[in-house]
Amino acid sequence: MTGVRVVRNVLTEDSDGSLRAEASDQNETIEGGLVLRSIGYRGTAITGVPFDEARGTIPNASGRVVEPETGNPVTGVYATGWIKRGPSGVIGTNKKCAADTVEALLADFEKAQLVTPVLDQAAFVSLVRERQPDVVDFTGWTRIDKAEKAAAGNRRRPKVKLVDVDCMLAAARGNE
After folding, report:
1. Domain region containing 149
2. Are residues 111 and 150 both part of a single domain?
3. What is the pTM of this model?
4. How many whole angstroms separate alpha carbon 36 and alpha carbon 40?
5. For the chain, what is the radius of gyration of the CA atoms?
6. Cα-Cα end-to-end distance for the chain
């Protein structure tokens, strides 16, 4: 190995209207003699929550956190993403992983298997806003999503991601 060649991709539209990535003429070779796979992730334990030190994950069954010794669910405690399954997958994998965990949570809710909250909803929202004044709720997220779609304009792509936190917060507040 003497280097890594990187290429800028462009989105092209297929005859059916779907978009696909295609290599452009813009490329660069970065010299090097060694390639390492390093994603830099290892889960860390949370006090009071079971943790698998060897895997760096929280033991679970369909997202329900379980006691490793018995396999019994820890009531009202759930995991998703890399802490659930380890550092693998892409955005689509994480969406499916989260959907599976939410499905388990809703099933437990329907069976009245969740613990009674210590705070009511208003007190909880107040606590979150006190600790994180810039929290973005679902309405704010939909504003960000709308701004990202609008930024794409007629560039033949679904959206242009906002990457600056201040810009995201402005969009979330409706101050685009």
Report:
1. 121-172
2. no
3. 0.60
4. 11
5. 22
6. 47
- Count CB neighbours of 112 within 10 A: 7
- 74 and 130 share one domain: no
Contact 4, 35 (CB under 8 A): yes
pLDDT at 64 over 90: yes
pLDDT-derived band at 33, boundaries 50, 70, 90: confident
One-character DSSP codes across 155-168: SSSS------HHHH
Residue ranges of the alpha helices (H) in 66-115?
82-85, 91-110
How many folded domains does the chain comprise?
Answer: 3
Query: Are 7 and 70 members of one domain?
Result: no
| pLDDT of 36 higher than 80 | no
pLDDT of residue 37: 67
